[in-house]
Write a structure and sequence with these properties.
disordered N terminus, TIM Barrel, 11 helices, 13% strand, binds flavin-adenine dinucleotide, 9-stranded parallel β-sheet
Length: 304
């Protein structure tokens, strides 16, 4: 594949330095909060486009997500994006969360359906008085606050509940038609999956950026369990790279940095210019990978 054709497919402009964003989850304890803030302070000088904070299953972290976002707004110059799901919630309660975000200055929401509270794999049923789908949620946010930018999810291996790829892409199209202007993908380890998905998305006339979600493997067993739950494949070659390292955290970290840096550098070489990192509230791997992409603290940038 030529770089030019990849850039045409990704809808990107020619540049050698990517834009990045970081995802955090809201801390449960004071100690976790202290540790998250060390991570945020370490990563902030890399000047990410935005940093997002997840919304726990079924809205379980509603207050913690809100307070993390508010603190980011108050204490840093970072642009926060608040994740929000509509599972198990009435329209009124979701609207209230959106209004509160708007009031404190949030202008970017990552809008999601969420997983059924009875667990992943259970049949999804929307709340009878709730938004019926992620597209429905996107439309409501945009209607209520046209100045809020809405990002949505995308699934290079299709969402496990999607009947097939066509149904999956139809769902993405509905979210874009409702006003979403960016999608972040579920993590993947095989770049070909992303490029094949991108071909399908572009063939369907969807032109928004489809930002690859990158999961540096901090912990292989945990990554395998995430992948199983998310319906993402974990290639044998990846398992082989971590084989025998269960009790060797130091080597694991070096391997993880090498694998993730290889993945993003190959994507960048093929014209991808935006990356979203699932940080798992840890800084070191993500900082190293960003450095290898040419990013330097406080806006100093080096061509990778
Ligand atoms: P949707 O847009 O709802 O669905 C994706 C596709 O699945 C649709 O296009 C459609 O083809 C199919 N589909 C959806 N619903 C049905 C149905 N009922 N029947 C048949 N097919 C269907 N979860 C959280 O709880 N909190 C978070 O903060 C969070 N952040 C996320 C961030 C990203 C970048 C990603 C990729 C996922 C995140 N998730 C989060 C997980 C997400 O909530 C789940 O994957 C959920 O199952 C789907 O919600 P969605 O909005 O991603 O997908």
């Amino acid at each position: 594949m030529s770089e030019t054709s990849a850039q045409a497919r990704t809808g990107s402009r020619a540049s050698r330095l990517p834009a990045i964003s970081f995802e955090f989850f809201p801390p449960k304890t004071e100690e976790m909060e202290r540790s998250l803030w060390e991570v945020i302070n370490r990563l902030a000088p890399l000047s990410p486009n935005f940093v997002s904070v997840t919304y726990g299953a079924g809205g379980s972290t509603r207050e913690r997500t809100h307070s993390t976002i508010t603190r980011i707004l108050g204490e840093t110059s970072l642009t926060p994006a608040a994740h929000l799901t509509c599972v198990d919630a009435t329209r009124a309660s979701v609207d209230e969360v959106v209004d509160r975000y708007h009031e404190v200055g949030v202008r970017h929401i990552v809008a999601l359906r969420g997983d059924p509270s009875s667990g992943i794999g259970a049949t999804y049923a929307a709340h009878p008085e709730g938004y019926q789908s992620s597209a429905d949620l996107v439309a409501a946010i945009r209607r209520r606050h046209p100045d809020i930018e809405v990002t949505v999810s995308a699934y290079p291996e299709k969402h496990p509940e999607s009947r097939d790829f066509d149904a999956d892409i139809d769902g993405l199209k509905a979210k874009v038609d409702a006003g979403a202007t960016r999608a972040i993908t579920q993590f993947f380890f095989d770049n070909d999956l992303y490029f094949r998905y991108l071909d399908r998305v572009r063939a369907a006339g969807i032109t928004i950026p489809i930002v690859p979600g990158i999961l540096p493997v901090q912990n292989f067993k945990q990554a395998r369990s995430f992948a199983q739950r998310a319906g993402a494949s974990l290639p044998d070659w990846l398992a082989a790279k971590f084989d025998g390292l269960d009790d060797d955290a130091e080597t694991r970290k070096l391997v993880a940095a090498t694998v993730a840096a290889g993945q993003v550098q190959k994507l960048a070489k093929h014209g991808v210019e935006n990356f979203h990192f699932y940080t798992m509230n840890r800084a070191d791997l993500v900082f190293a990978i960003s450095h290898l992409l040419g990013l330097r603290p406080n806006g100093a940038r080096k061509a990778a």
